[in-house]
């Protein structure tokens, strides 16, 4: 059994990019939904219930977006670290 790690740098870069793109798309979908729902006339208890749900959803979406961006950043950093380590190892051997 081999004790090696094989890393596909291009795949890591693509995956991080897809996560960043998805984070942006989620935000766009939320803004589109808000625009559509914002045109409705909410009154009384319905207005309060809608606003409470909207606030909860906004918070959740922000958390998901930040999490995706953080994971993408970690994948980018890992990719850089793997490449730097491989370069240092190659230099050490010759």
TrEMBL record:
Gene3D superfamilies: ESAT-6-like. Transmembrane segments: none annotated. InterPro entries: ESAT-6-like_sf, T7SS_ESAT-6-like. NCBIfam families: WXG100_ESAT6. Belongs to the WXG100 family. This is ESAT-6-like protein. It comes from Phytomonospora endophytica.
